[in-house]
Amino acid sequence: MCASIHYRDDEFLGRYAAVTGACVIQHLEQLAASLKGARVVHVNSTREGGGVAEILQKLIPLKKALGIDARWEVIEGTPAFYACTKSFHNALQGMDIRLSDKLLEAYEETNARCAERLKPILEQADFVFIHDPQPAALLKHFPERRGQWIWRCHIDVRQPFRPVWKYLRPFLSAYDASIFSLPEFAQPLPHPQYIIAPSIDPLSEKNRDLPNAEIEKVYDRFDLDPERPMVLQVSRYDRFKDPVGVIRACRMAAKLTPLQLVLAGGEASDDPEGQAVLEEVRQQAEGHPDIHVLLLPADAHRTINALQRAADIVIQKSLREGFGLTVTEGMWKGRPVIGGDTGGIRLQVFNHYTGFLVRTPEGAALRIRYLLHNGRLRRQMGERARRFVLDNFLITRHLREYLTLLVSLQAGGRDRMMVG
Amino acid sequence: MPDTAETAPFEVKDCALITLSTGIRVQNLREFRDALEKVPVGSIDHHFWGRLLRPQFDEPEYNNDFASWAYHGLHDKSLAEQLSMTLPTDFPDLETLRLELIDTVEKHLDESEMIPWARADQLFHFLHSQIVVFDTGLRFGDPRDLTAYLPSLSTGCIYYHFIDARSRTRQRCDDFSAWLAGFGDRYESLRLRLCGFDPYFSSLDEIRARVASLFQAFFEEQP
Questions:
Q1: Burial A21-50 (b: 16+ CB within 10 A, else e)
Q2: ipTM for the predicted complex
Q3: Per the CB < 8 Å rule, is A195 touching B127?
């Protein structure tokens, strides 16, 4: 019930209420009432770059605003640690990757060292969220922990490379619960497995409304042609994002319809493979002035926002994708999305409604041509896409599910709980 | 005849749900039948109503997840049609509903020359949900007063009072109808209209709008 509730626009929660409606915020406050003062810690391996860091940057202040004692800790490792965890990431998404004992030692050593540093915080926490495999081995260093530990997996682990899963499984089995983005990703583990899709923050630099003048600046800044339709893929330079496939698709489509492609990739401090993939992409783009390969700093959020708003079509032709927050971002800006028919993209892109799902560069080329040919349809799809994100993929929905999970764990995981 | 003074006020409750995996997934109809036998009974309930909680865009062609998978995963239209007409409210409890589903699938297996199967990326994943219910503190003694508030009820309230009530209560109907019944015949025509509303193809927003319009129309008709 929220008929009589009003939030001030200058209050932190009020700014969200202005986007989602007061009902949504009041619902969160009621749900959080039984969690007031609870110590909740999130741990991941990078403060900037990538979807996980972006979610945590907003989730923590929101939890605090609701009276929860939330904090965010980051583990830091050696180059060998990051090489190992990048291999984990690839292997969990299905790549056949053998890991040397030396790399696995670096993984366990980093976790042991970070456990020592974080002991006073994590040992006393009521709830600890461990994001992805990088800090997953922390748990075994906390036999005296007082709270419940939850492993949050953001990766498409539908068909993990078995030897790597076998190595990680004992670390993960000890958790009290795990969270996956889609039902398809859930794995046999001896604890409750929650399904929670990620989200975007409508008020972040990357997603808030921008003045037209700022959007138009990207044409000059990146030497783009304002008269030529623009196709944009935003993602780190990673083979699973198939940037080379996107270039092929656009080259095929460009034979019949004029367009320019922008590949905008950020750097993530925990991804040692990015440079090699970027070089491959640059080679493929060489000699094609309408293909723009951009390497943006991790904090170029407003620039990405402006590029997404300047684009006519957003593409995310991933071969594997945990969720695809860049899809959500593009949809929030009212753009139709051509997405790889995989993982969480399927949860967002609906053929002929919010965009198109494709499996090949040829499929992407066909849909680029189709959308560029029909401006009215493109706008209609874009409007539906924005509404769909408003209803389903904003951070307030994400937070509601986290709070529900915490209340559930607090109450012993019963199917039906009364609070308040 | 009981009147407003004798009927307990309507207590507005809200809820939040979270989805869990049961860890059980199946690829063909025989596996599906076996899984129906062993999944927690809450999973059966979830697959009839869980779509209300999921992001979706298109109009639901079939009104429960089992029927939808039979069509989209197994490409078996006749099974999809049969499963779509299995209504939870026709059965006294979820265990009886489970037996009915198993019976429908077994009968279909007996009649099939081959076991229908789905592609590897079209498996059926059995899910279930947990519900957290909280009291909003709002109470309504008079249905006329509730009418004004209905359009602003959260979708959580609607889920709890209009959907969850069907598996929670003995009457297998919604909480609004149950409350109105406490007033005797006075609101009988409104109660019957609420009971006659088929919520299977609507979103929670649409259910809220429909319930609000039924209340509003009833009171506009009153002298």
A1: bbbbbbbbebbbebbeebbbbbbbbbebbb
A2: 0.90
A3: yes
